[in-house]
Amino acid sequence: EAQVTQNPRYLITVTGKKLTVTCSQNMNHEYMSWYRQDPGLGLRQIYYSMNVEVTDKGDVPEGYKVSRKEKRNFPLILESPSPNQTSLYFCASSPGTGAFSGNTIYFGEGSWLTVV
Amino acid sequence: AQSVSQHNHHVILSEAASLELGCNYSYGGTVNLFWYVQYPGQHLQLLLKYFSGDPLVKGIKGFEAEFIKSKFSFNLRKPSVQWSDTAEYFCAVSSYSSASKIIFGSGTRLSIRP
Fold first, then answer.
1. CB–CB of A42 and B104 under 8 A?
2. Is the peptide bond before A75 cis (omega within 30 degrees of 0)?
3. Each residue of B50-95: pLDDT tens digit?
4. Cα–Cα distance measured from residue B104 to residue A17, given in angstroms and rounded to the nearest whole number
5. What is the distance in angstroms between the Cα of A102 and the nearest Cα belonging to chain B?
């Protein structure tokens, strides 16, 4: 079954404690991306990757890091989480180099992160 | 910069009522347009998309949307809603100049009274 898998799904952590949210897709997609969803703001892109070892900043990259060492994995790293990073996070993947060709974006189930 | 506006933050309808959710974008070039739906507790799923051809696009579950280039709009419609349509709906746009990015609107929460 084609899917994007994120872990953990739910996490409460403390300010400053490094954490990683993993994302894995089994569709051999080139393009992967991270979004955060906040009430009234919709989804905002954090980082994206157009292929292995190719990453770029989205609209709200501050406080986040990513890596793309393998095609299937795209972890999101919060080096020193702060309370304003409390949010719902979605990983997504798409074939090709992104959305313009009309390719559908497939989303993971979401990860609820709370930073206290 | 590109932006997507969804004017209705929360819409409440009774079953069988007709639905129209507004979406406007700000970009003058060639665009692709999408509507995604997020059912309670679930991830986003594609409802429909436009990238060329007929501006009236039909999607899953009886939804359709019309691309009106002159109005920079891509409104979502359904002639008769059901309780199961309760969800949050997101309009999104990608453009030729930023092919690797897709910009989402802030979402419209749809509540259907049974």
1. yes
2. no
3. 988 999 999 999 999 999 999 999 999 999 999 999 999 999 988 7
4. 30
5. 6
